Amino acid sequence: MNLSAQEYLAKLLAKENLSVQHGNYQTASFDVENRVLRLPLWADKGKDVYDLLVGHEVGHALYTPVDGWHDSEKKIKHIPRAYLNIVEDIRIERKIQETYPGIVRPFKAGYKKLFDDNLFGTDDRDINEAGLMDRLNVSSKGRGYVPVEFSEEEAPLIKEAMQVQTWDDVVNVCEKLFAFVDENEKDEEMPEGTGADFPSNDMDGDDETETENPQGTTPPEDNEEMDQEGEGEGKGEKTLIDVYDEEVTPIESTEKPKKHETWTEDTFREREEDLLDVKKDRYGNEKQCSYSSGITNKNLDNILYSWDDAQALRKDWIENADDYDTYKSAYINEDCKKDWIKSKPHLNSTANLLAKDFERKKAAYEYSRAKTAKSGKLDPLKLHSYKYSEDIFLTVTNLAQAKSHGIIMFVDHSGSMCDIIEDVTNQAITIAMFCRKVNIPFEIYSFTTTSFHGTGLERAENIKSKGNEIDELDKVKIVEMFSSKMNTKTFEEAAQLAFSISKAHSYSSRVNYYVYAGSLSNIDAMGSTPLIQSVILANRLTKKFQKKHRIQKTNVMFLTDGYPDQIRFHNDELANVKTHTYKTAINFSGKIIYAENTRDMYKKCLLRLKELTGAKILGFHLAINASTFGQGYHDVREKQYIEFKDIMKEWRKNGHIVWKNQKGYDDYFIIKCGTQNVDEEFEPKKHETIADIRNEFKKFNKNKKHTKQLVAKITDAVAI
Hints:
Elements: H1 3-14, E1 19-23, E2 29-31, E3 36-40, H2 47-63, H3 81-99, H4 104-116, H5 132-142, H6 155-162, H7 167-183, H8 240-245, H9 263-271, E4 279-280, E5 286-292, H10 297-303, E6 304-305, H11 307-320, H12 323-328, H13 334-368, E7 371-378, E8 393-398, E9 405-412, H14 421-437, E10 442-449, E11 476-483, H15 488-505, H16 531-549, E12 553-559, E13 579-588, E14 591-595, H17 598-613, E15 616-623, H18 626-636, H19 641-654, E16 656-662, E17 665-672, H20 690-719
Parallel strand pairs: 1-3, 5-13, 6-11, 9-10, 9-12, 12-15, 15-17
Antiparallel strand pairs: 2-3, 4-5, 7-8, 10-11, 13-14, 16-17
Helix pairs in contact: 1-2, 2-3, 2-4, 3-5, 3-7, 13-14, 13-20, 14-15, 16-17
């Protein structure tokens, strides 16, 4: 069930921009002052039932005063609350259906489903042996589906109840109904006789079908299948006003009326939980998953920092830092700059390999789908063969148009990445260089939190989770690293900056100069791993990216060590349904994603991202040893240890390994770190023996072979 569609339906029916909030609620409620309609998480019993429930609650929101809601504790004279509920339901449902005739059929079909599921208890007792209010309740809601009989004395009151216009009318009619039931409390049998039923609240005017019953009457029935196309509506049928104004033909019954009993209303309230979406836990207990509405668009904007936003924060930090911090800062460190100049050619070399392989595969795609056609002009070189060949015309070859590509990448900047952050950043820079060489639009972001160092970001103070939204968003930051919209100068600055920041965070012994993370702005501080929040934002960024560049094939990449943060939901004080302690549910763009744990939630969010954007999802895990390889391996595979040992040998031998369609990823790579990127030309060191040069050349060829194999795998994933 698409919750977004149902929320839009509620807003359209209400003719105002209501705030519609689903949550762990026992029943629906409406905040009149703040105009917030709160809806429970109903089980998916079909669209008709959901439309009925939404339409019913919107009717209450539009027409029912605060004192009229069924959970109101205010006493209205001596009238039981159940009386008011039953008659008020009649009023608001008639008004919403008169305003929107198109919702008449879903109301009828929805109540049919509810009666079939015995939500009102009508399968347990004979409704025609019940009291007046129960028969009124079933008659108005069932609209002929459940045959109901009324006596001659009851008929005028029933007709008046079916035609109430205002809340005051509801109260007045309920007083009369209460008095009538009170006066007829003696167990006097009604005279026997036969007659016709009171006309039900049949808003769609379906034809009546005769059927036999124990009392000998011919009540209207609606047991035939509902016409899904709404056929028959408006073809010589009674209007809504006609239904309520027609004369009542009373019947006489032998059944005894019940005093002030409302078991159908009471049964529905008791069984209202059956409408809720509940799941069994490991012990067999039925509870609801803890539900979150996700992240609002406003907060998605707040957790995203553009390149300009981040640069402003960095410049502000440099201006206010003391000389000691400035000296140790990677932002302006001269050793970092020299290291970048030295490393850039190696990264560029790999980017060239990627570009060449991509163009080759792109050309192969075009050529394999090329079409050859005759031009209609004679080919002078073939005229000599006109006597024995008809192929004497010039031909034209039309190459297939290759698809337009785009890449969006998210780079994990959590504290657990410090061992491999240099390699991860170099991988991101290489992909960016590759995209620039082949003119592929791209955007690359880092993601982490500031939980290890406190927020320290002014914008975070504006981030407030509300209702049941995902909490602690003030700590999340997704920062733009570089993109295709940057000119050459800005891209060079951004690449050097990313390279230098990775040196400050790195635990690698390759860094032979001193820069450290404490001399960085909080925008570049490392924290934890908000992968789920990043995937939710990725949906919005990807759609915007596709629309801007008219992308046909989008690749969304995640470079991470694979461990998402445990997400927390903001405390919804109005939630009153028992929930599981470990099962969670998130509304991801209208669809509820259910999960057993955080990793399962991340996987299902990736699948939902693919469903929403049509993008190809790629995962990259960089490992430095067997332990870190195992982290990435077990994140996507659930096999025995024997297979793990064999696969790890393959990974050590080739320097990388790739799986398809695992844990939400279309392609998942585990890449061995520490293998240095190499130039295309072999340059042996000076003053070495022949044996040293031979060994160095072998190592060079091995590394180059691994690099080319990895390049081929990546371009296969991106280009095909």
